[in-house]
Amino acid sequence: MSDSTTDFQIAPSILSADFARLGAEVDDVLASGADIVHFDVMDNHYVPNLTIGPMVCEALRKHGVTAPIDAHLMVKPVDRLIGDFIDAGASYITFHPEASEHIDRSLQLIRDGGCKAGLVFNPATPLSYLDYVMDKVDMVLLMSVNPGFGGQSFIPGTLDKLREARRRIDASGRPIRLEIDGGVKVDNIAEIARAGADTFVAGSAVFKARNEADPNRYDGVIADFRRALAEA
Ligand SMILES: O=C(CO)[C@H](O)[C@H](O)COP(=O)(O)O
After folding, report:
1. 93 falls in which pLDDT band (50, 70, 90)?
2. 29-48 pLDDT, tens per residue?
3. Is the C-beta atom of 125 inside 6 A of ligand 1?
4. 173 belongs to an annotated ligand binding site
């Protein structure tokens, strides 16, 4: 396992949050120990669902969220939204390579805007898209479900793909984060970590697990994730 996996980060996907009280939900999940806010942007074109855009990202910053915001663009075309998310205060901007006309240009646009850049791989998208752009990538995000909806089951074949992505990242010698997204639960997170992931997106597993004693807190499930990771 790579040294970078000692720095595990938990990134709740706000796709499963209560959108009517989003600012409070994000505050609560961060106060409960989450590291990153995973922000799913769906356009009803690249994926069959429609969610939120840069205005909501900006609103979270104005609300006072200072934690990293990881904007996962499930959109096509990609480039016209990159500037908007830079201006809105995103920290990471990731996109699907097959949705970009010019992958190198999209990565460069993100980095020129001062954000960290990442490529996202659907379950059947080959990692060869990393060839020739590894030096411009700060995050590799592997989808372990087909994108578009929360609450799906983890696709087991993603574990082999994680091992291959970890091998490529370690060979690059660069501090690239390896994020996994889809069907991450307390009972599979250790196995996913052993396969090489260091950043874990979890939507339904977090937001459906409010503390019994305090419905505005998620400490219990975040602590369960950390315990499972400590044993990985
Ligand atoms: O990008 C996504 C779907 O496209 C979501 O982030 C992902 O599915 C997380 O939800 P869950 O943890 O419930 O599987």
Report:
1. very high
2. 999 999 999 999 999 999 99
3. no
4. no
Residues 6+ apart with CB under 8 A from 187: 228
Q: Is 13 annotated to bind ligand?
A: yes
Q: Is residue 48 part of a domain?
A: yes
Assigned domain for 1 exists: no
Q: What is the pLDDT of residues 166-216, one digit of tens each?
A: 999 999 999 999 999 999 999 999 999 999 999 999 999 999 998 888 888
Residue 145: other Cβ atoms inside 10 A: 19
Could you tell me the CATH number of the domain that includes residue 170?
Answer: 3.20.20.70
Q: In terms of residue numbers, what domain contains 70?
A: 7-230
Taken in order 229, 227, 188, 42, the sign of the CA dihedral is negative
What is 75-90 written as a DSSP string?
Answer: -SS-HHHHHHHHHHT-
Q: Determine whether the shortest distance from the Cβ of 201 to ligand 1 is under 6 A.
A: yes
3-state secondary structure of 198: coil
Domain count, the chain: 1
Return the ligand 1 atom nearest residue 183 CA: 14
On whether residue 2 sits in a domain, the answer given is no
175 domain residue, yes or no: yes
DSSP string, 4-54: GGGS-EEEEBGGGS-GGGHHHHHHHHHHTT---EEEEEEBSSSSS-B---H
Return the active site residues: 40, 181
89 is in an annotated binding site: no
- For a mutational test of ligand 1's pocket, the pick from 69, 145, 155, 189, i.e. the residue with the most ligand atoms closer than 8 A to its C-beta, is 145
